[in-house]
Amino acid sequence: MDADVIVIGAGLSGLVATRELAEAGRSVLLVDGEPLSSLGGQAHWSFGGLFLVDSPEQRRLRVRDSAELALADWLGSASFDRPEDYWPRRWAEAYVHFAAGEKRAWLHGLGVRWFPLVQWAERGGYQVPGHGNSVPRFHVTWGTGPGLVQPFAAAVLASARVRIRSRHKVTGIDVGADGVRVHGVVLEPSDAARGVPSPTAAVGEFSFAAQAVVVAGGGLGGNLDLVRRSWPRGYGEPPRAMIAGVPDYVDGSMLEVTAAAGGRVINPDRMWHYPEGVVNHTPLWSRHGIRILPGPSSLWLDARGRRLPTPLFPGFDALGALRHLTAGGHDHSWFVLDLETAAKELALSGSEQNGDLTGKDLRLLAGRLRPGPTPELQAFLDGGEDFLTAASTAELTAKMNELAGAPLVDAGALRELIEAHDLQVTSGLGKDPQVVAVAAARRFLVDRLMRVAGPHPLLDPDAPGEGRAGPGGPLLAVRLHVLTRKTLGGLETDLDARVLQADGTPLPGVYAVGEAAGFGGGGMHGHRALEGTFLGGCVFSGRTAGRAVAASLGG
């Protein structure tokens, strides 16, 4: 045996599992196809959001939450409806209780801290028990994704029980009576920067054996061909043009390798892609896109300039909006707003797009409470190909149609739509559901302080019928693309993270964690996620597997 356990994948879930195994006294061989500079995987690039329930941060903001309410929200969003959802549902229940229990204290003990202003993601807007978070639960890690990765990476790098083999890409798993063997190719050395595609030429082969293997190889969001093959029914044809929210190495290969070894992949059609992606002005990986984290005020229009139906407002139901848009046959949509709204409501996802939070810089962070966009948003306003500004609706429409390459949006119709919206806003009350939702959001202190702009007309009230930008101008249109991101289905696992075979029995010695396991069970999110649950799912499943494997080896 080369080690007690082999962990395949050095992303967050693999690091957590490795740390748990080393803490339990087990020797670990951690293998990954990327250079060591990519330690932490996708989690490094994340905003660092974590789903916590009844936290001190929530209570300080007078948010009343409970495990009962969180589980009701989770199950309403997941809508488990298949026989194979047995284990996913059990993982969902276990995870919510973890999020409402020891998760925060355990992470806090490892040095993780959080930005005190809890955010409200995936608001839903449906009748209960439909999709959405009833209360804010999105806790941003202080230091964003790198801040969450750091304690686990540091422990792994410092452990004498862990050996790391980067540039080792696994291509096969063989299960035998005496253990598990993994084999693959050694890739040529690379000093590629994190996220930049690394060379794929093989310079050798390897074969390692251990008592158990933990598969932490991630999902398939960087493999657009596989995304298209897995595209869910009812969502229309896959968009002709998509951008990627994850690096090229997120290719689904370990799902295929583990399935070939006898593991069962379930719910492959359940994915979590965002309809609010924009092309990165400074790309690292192929088709590199960034997700906009929107406040609720922007007018969300389809490719032809029609408003999305209630409650598909920005920030309410990402997958519902995706389904509506892709079923309509177009591969883009629009946010229409003004600069004042953009400065307060258009946040950007990703550690590199939030220098203040990632760098733990209080001086920069204070700038979010002042008027004007963040430096990262300003960079997109200045150099992003999807961002258009104009002094009037006529000028804005012309630019939108030019960018789309077709006259899909009518200038008069756009002006009338915004005028109708402005009438609702200036009434002080209004019947428009989005206007009502914005007013409700501003009742929450954090939204009022930093996430939701004060209601105001987009057009100049002193120039009726002219479509001229109002006091919050200029007008802004943002072209939105489908941004690939997460795999919600995956390898079916029991509550010990053991990979199951088609007959429901464990595949001896093989475990799966993180996105490879649909974050647990083969799809603990069901059809929809509540956000802040992906990193947390990596942490929970990695911890679960590490402890279960350590206990199963005895001695």
Automatic annotation (TrEMBL):
It comes from the Bacteria. The keyword Flavoprotein applies. The keyword Oxidoreductase applies. Residues 4-535 form the FAD-dependent oxidoreductase 2 FAD-binding domain. Keywords: Flavoprotein, Oxidoreductase. This is FAD-binding dehydrogenase. It comes from Microlunatus aurantiacus.
